[in-house]
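queue> pop job 88
queue> type: inverse folding (structure -> sequence)
queue> payload:
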């Protein structure tokens, strides 16, 4: 399948503004950073989580632990992703029992990634609370999972794709809507 840019919906400044707002909302909603852990889902979610941790430090003056999940082996579509999937490390060097967790990812779509992340989290303890923060919520849920913190809600069709690019991975910052090129759909 071939996709082409339809529109650019966020630039670097808009991404930063959204992450600052999410950090403020986390601090305001949770009232305290005690027992708070921010966990990012590899790849882009991990970098966005790191930025949120930095913003929370700026806002509250308190450092919040950061963890990173690689959900590859927890996916329900593992065989469809690749015959030899690349598995990176999960970095959660602490017990999650009784902690308040905010899971961070770049895009929320069907919620299958988030379900896999929640499944993996339970291997590290039993949190008292799990919340979700995403840069973009594009809808089309297949599971009853909703984000608690959203940078931008973007209604999309299933023939569109949300492409998030961030400096740490892509060397540029933007969020684009890509549309399927006519006549290029796969079988």
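queue> result:
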């Amino acid at each position: 399948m071939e996709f082409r840019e339809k529109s650019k919906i966020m630039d670097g400044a808009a991404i930063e503004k959204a992450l600052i707002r999410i950090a403020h909302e986390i601090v305001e909603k949770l009232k305290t950073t005690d027992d708070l852990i921010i966990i990012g889902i590899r790849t882009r979610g991990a970098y966005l989580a790191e930025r949120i941790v930095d913003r929370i430090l700026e806002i509250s003056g308190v450092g919040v632990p950061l963890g990173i999940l690689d959900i590859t082996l927890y996916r329900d579509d593992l065989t469809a992703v690749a015959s030899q999937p690349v598995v990176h490390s999960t970095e959660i060097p602490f017990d999650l029992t009784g902690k308040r967790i905010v899971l961070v990812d770049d895009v929320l779509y069907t919620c299958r990634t988030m379900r896999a992340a929640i499944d993996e989290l339970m291997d590290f303890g039993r949190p008292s609370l799990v919340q979700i923060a995403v840069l973009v919520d594009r809808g089309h849920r297949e599971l009853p999972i909703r984000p608690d913190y959203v940078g931008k809600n973007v209604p999309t069709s299933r023939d569109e794709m949300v492409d998030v690019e961030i400096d740490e991975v892509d060397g540029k910052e933007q969020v684009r809507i890509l549309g399927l090129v006519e006549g290029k759909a796969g079988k």
